Amino acid sequence: LIIEVFESEKLVENKDEDGVDLVTKYDRDVEETLVKNLSKKFPNH
Hints:
Elements: H1 2-7, E1 12-14, E2 22-24, H2 25-41
Antiparallel strand pairs: 1-2
């Protein structure tokens, strides 16, 4: 994932309507991966 991010064109969008919290596709991908893996490790949390 890190190499893919480094070598690719970046698309940045606003996370909220105020346009203050910028987020990329890769931010969302990393978040999804972390949540999935943490949920497996700690299913009752």
